[in-house]
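Example 3.
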Amino acid sequence: MHQPPERINLAIIGCGIRGQEFLENCLKRNDIHLTAIADPDEQMNARSQAILEKYNVKNVRFYNKGKFDYLELYKNETIDAVIIASPWEDHISQAIAAIDYGIIPGLEVCGANNLEECWAIVQKSEEKNIPVMILENVCFRRDMMAVFNMVKQGLFGELLLCHGGFQQDLRSLKFNNGKERRGFGVQLGEQGFSEAKWRTQYSIDRNGDLYPTHGFGPLSNLLDINKGNRLTSIASFATKSRGLHKYIIESPFGGPDCPSASLDFKLGDIITTVFQTIHGETIVLTHDTNNPRANNFGFRVQGTEGLWQDLASGNLEDGLIYLEKYATQKNKWDNSLDLLSQYDHPLWKKYKKETTEVVGYGGMDFLVLHTFIEAVKHKTPFPLDVYDLATWYAITPLSEKSIAEGGQVQIFPDFTKGKWIDRKNNFGIEHI
Amino acid sequence: MHQPPERINLAIIGCGIRGQEFLENCLKRNDIHLTAIADPDEQMNARSQAILEKYNVKNVRFYNKGKFDYLELYKNETIDAVIIASPWEDHISQAIAAIDYGIIPGLEVCGANNLEECWAIVQKSEEKNIPVMILENVCFRRDMMAVFNMVKQGLFGELLLCHGGFQQDLRSLKFNNGKERRGFGVQLGEQGFSEAKWRTQYSIDRNGDLYPTHGFGPLSNLLDINKGNRLTSIASFATKSRGLHKYIIESPFGGPDCPSASLDFKLGDIITTVFQTIHGETIVLTHDTNNPRANNFGFRVQGTEGLWQDLASGNLEDGLIYLEKYATQKNKWDNSLDLLSQYDHPLWKKYKKETTEVVGYGGMDFLVLHTFIEAVKHKTPFPLDVYDLATWYAITPLSEKSIAEGGQVQIFPDFTKGKWIDRKNNFGIEHI
């Protein structure tokens, strides 16, 4: 048996706001030796430096000489793994380069630029025998893991339908004042701060589900996608585009005559995507970021013995459930708290303390990083691996193509090339 | 101006359980002279007779000599209008025959047998200048009418997305003991009672959204479909079929060896249908009747200024709402009660007493009948007319075709032949 090292050597590529959350959570652990950070943005590097100082960590090298300096990092640093939290367009090319250096990449979530890069990372990972993890934190959300636990113990019967999505008002993040992350401006691009600098451009250029994995990942785990099951088709439908323009012209910092008011946003305000699986389940995914709304991803998990739906942000009580054998009243919802508490996932119980101590999005951010680091240390398979990454990232270009064709059904590629038949679902198991 | 008659002469074709609810609600009114009932089922006629006796109504003629005796009714009776609440397959042919006799038909809801009959009723109605109403009661549901009111007053901004559906556990109605309507058996067809006699056969023969109008009708009103807006496409996706077989084999009255256990159900357990409109809205419709669930049609109405979703069965408090200008907390749901009460529809206020006194599904059953009868009396246009009927009924054969083609997008026919451009939405207005 492999004797795990006490610490692994790690670097972060792309250390903006999200990368800094990873950074801080890495520094809270005693099994990571953070050697280097690559980011061309000096404003962000100053923030990262402040975090390092807060934790009294020295000798972390910064690679800040432009967009491609991460290649120098790969060349110079002796690292086991790298966390990639850069702007979306660079994730896969940076990961492929890491693999070429024998470094294991963990990729923050997004959608792919195109299908070809999804195939490319699969092929590179297989060729070099270097595993890849997608750092999809919502897979580890407490309610999703309790529901995962219940599904795998048969409480929902045979699954039939899942809904999910990324449904969150991002307007004040897509536009800001160039200084603060949220609000107080209608700037973007070079004048914007953090995601407004680059992420908003996707709403101008692309009409498709731009951010599929938070909604899709947890459902993929439930349905054993790439692990005994597979997607066969995808079709996407976009509404008109209204919210971002309206936000700009109604903003006290914008108005109908400001430069941003002339922008033309390709992204439909709400993207509805429907998937079919080879075992006959349907998945409905919604991308909804351009208009005011309550934060609620809209999960629904339904089987032959009942269903659950979420209504807010992932706490065990933030949902409704009806399981025929457990319902307190026939054909009436129960609040989800009782059942989900009873089936709270073992990892959430085991890491009760740690899940409260992280920065970012709460306990799920501890668990996604923990899962990555432990698997690297123990050389055990990632539960969310390169096939999941390719499949989940591929939703973006496929949904774009379907929308461009009026909702035409697209065949979903099988990135496992048939291996899905024998692969086993290893999500939610601690590989230690 | 047309002087309305004090009473209209009315008949009912198909007077099963649903027809009897109409019958009783007709007898509660003083502006209807019910002259005749046509139904070949003597068990049902005995129940209708009992209702007539309860209200001390005499001289109602029964046409009970087989399935086509309604044609004798049309020939012999002097009636203004007919309510058609027969098994689904007969609705349109019975309505077309009524029009030929100059009788105004009001049709209970269902899906069409095929597209051709949708065109046929439109053409017949136009040719004879006889209006047709679809008696879609959920359009008049209290929460839906409050939301309609709010949408038309601009509280949601510009609409983007609507969800709805027929999501109700019908297993104990699809199968029964041949005597009681719900449960206590796994009989169907000749051995079943009420809908089990004929409705269940649709789950054996057809894979599509069999019952689209309860979910679609209210959304159609919100989106001005056929009245300034129109559907351009439809695509449908079916899950595997599991629930009905499971119900039969697990029933204490059934089991794996009972005759019903060998039935093969074509109907996928959950049908997801996505529509696109010419103004760029998306509609998602769900048909979900074969498995245990909480009663909740799953409405969601979303515009550029916020959204509402229902969580139960149509009371003003059975939902969540987030409208940016009215929300008590940023990005958090409020219960729907306060806003929906404030915008309670004038018809619900005006008929406060009557809406509590009907049988069937509550106040909406008063309002749908009232709307039909008042429009017949006053010769005013129906708010839910033959174009709505054709459009809503057509969902069934179109969704079937899409599913059969793997989810392929279908062009949605324009039954108004271009008149949608100038037609005005007259729903929710009392035409007196």
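Chain B touches chain A through 53 residues (CB under 8 Å). The CA atoms of residues 137 and 368 of chain B lie 5 Å apart.
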